Amino acid sequence: MSQESFTFTVGKLDAGMAILLGERAHLIEFPSILLPPGATTGSIVNIAVHQNHSEERRRDAEFWALQDEILQEFGVHSPAPPKLQLRNVTQTSITLEWPAIELATAKLRSLDIYRNGQRLAPIPSPLTNTSSKLSGLELNTEYTFQLILRTTAGTFPSNLIRVRTHTMSDTFGISVCFGAVHDPVMLENAKMALREMKAKWSDTIQIDTTHFVCTTPAATPSGAAASRSSPVAPGVEYQRALQLSIPVVQPHWIFACHTERKLVSIAAYNLGATPPTPSAAVRPQSMSQASLPRSPTSPNVRQSMPPLARSTTPGQTTSSFVNQPASSSSPTSPPATTATVTAPDDPSVEDAQTESASASAERMAVMEKRMSRTGTMNREFKFPPTSPTPVSPTGDAPNLPSIQARVVTPSNIEVPPPPPVEKEAKDGGGEAGDPGEEDVGDTVDIPLN
Asked: Where is the composition biased (Low complexity) (predicted)?
């Protein structure tokens, strides 16, 4: 290794820096700590510079060892994308599951679930939770689901799952957890019905459990009988079902689903309710097929109303209800086209009704005639006193054969002719013989009573 020495003169020392003056360099700054001890301003020093190759090799070896360690720690193992799987599907819910997420040396930022390409919700406790149940879905609708894992090492999406929810006739999505059933034969029949519907059951509540089936909230069937003398605490699975809002039904609900071959409502099969009998489950007949009273004239024809009868008196209608009094129609109203059932024939009643209708029609004709003609009013005229016999507002005579009612009509009253009125010529109008306007004088209100 060759060395070359350079001669410098110390020009100035200031704040740890020395100004060196040399032959080849006019001015350079040099750390004063590297000067020989005792060197001051004006001292002459020799400085030699050479390259240390051995130290360079040692430094490079340390650097590449550190790079290999970083590669093995962070470059070989990285987070793995989640593997999403379908566990169960019902009419309005879907259950998804996946293995535990692998983060390697990265840190978790979030684990979100996406529905139809839109972020639905974050997964709670993503480091320990490996399943999720999504409810509130539409019936018989196709959906897509995906998990998105975000870490400090990047974003890792899962596989895409496409699934369609069930219809009401699909029963293989039912997942039952059995509790305490008092009848072992009923329990076995319920499991057989589930097997035929391709449904599943278990003895513990799981993430995809749809219904909890039992006949008593106690842990064992004997607990129901024992609770009469001493209180028995409900079972653990029953309490979990209440906490998770899982419907608690009786085994009869399984039999109803098996019979109807579809998912039936649980309203009539809740725990404590009286299940409907098989005969009550049959749909009732419609009103058109129900048993209705038949007409005596046509016994083979069903009808929804009693037989109709037509009125024989013109302008008279009968009531639409049985054994109700008849009402007369006004002369201006059109005749009724629908007749109804009347009371049994009674000669006295028919005569009274006929006389009442005739008197009413006669009174209305007289009143219309008087209203149509013109004339003057006699101020001394008064109506005759009313008859003591009560008359109904409709003009019908009371149906009392023993009472003779006399009807006073306006045609029986003699009205005196009005006094002659002298016509005078209007002041300032024409000659003496010219006709002018009549002076009727002041108007006076005359009480008619």
From this structure: 325-346
Under the banding of pLDDT at 50, 70 and 90, the label for residue 323 is very low
Residue 4: pLDDT band by 50, 70, 90 thresholds?
Answer: confident
3-state SS of the chain is: CCCEEEEEEEEEEECCEEEEEECCCCCEEEEHHHCCCCCCCCCEEEEEECCCHHHHHHHHHHHHHHHHHHHHHHHCCCCCCCCCEEEEECCCCEEEECCCCCCCCCCEEEEEEEECCEEEEECCCCCCCCEEEECCCCCCCEEEEEEEEEECCEEEECCCEEEECCCCCCCCCCEEEECECCCHHHHHHHHHHHHHCCCEEECCCCCCCCEEECCECECCCHHHHHCCCCCCCECHHHHHHHHCCCCEECCHHHHHHHHHCCCCCCHHHECCCCCCCCCCCCCCCCCCCCCCCECCCCCCCECCCCCCCCCCCCCEECCCCCCCCCEECCCCCCCCCCCCCCCCCCHHHHHHHHHHHHHHHHHHHHHHHHHHCCCCCCCCCCCCCCCCCCCCCCCCCCCCCCCCCCCCCHHHCCCCCCCCCCCCCCCCCCCCCCCCCCCCCCCCCCCCC
Structure tokens that stand for 252 in this block: 């009869």
Provide the token pair at 52: 């240390």
Are the C-beta atoms of residues 417 and 380 closer than 8 Å to each other?
A: no
In whole angstroms, what is the distance from residue 174 CA to residue 199 CA? 5
Sheet holding 4-14, edge to edge: 28-31, 17-22, 4-14, 44-49
Side-chain-side CA neighbours of 197 within 13 Å: the count stands at 28
Give the CA distances from residue 350 to residues 111, 292, 308, 313, 347, in Å, rounded to whole numbers and listed in that order. 92, 31, 18, 10, 5
Q: pLDDT tens across 395-433, in order?
A: 454 554 444 545 555 555 555 666 665 555 444 444 444
Query: Phi and psi (nearest 5°) for 66?
Result: -65, -35
User: Tokens in use for 134?
Assistant: 């999504």
The structure's pTM equals 0.49
Lookup: tokens for 412: 């029986």
Over residues 242-291, the pLDDT tens digits come to 999 999 999 999 999 999 999 999 999 999 888 887 544 334 343 344 44
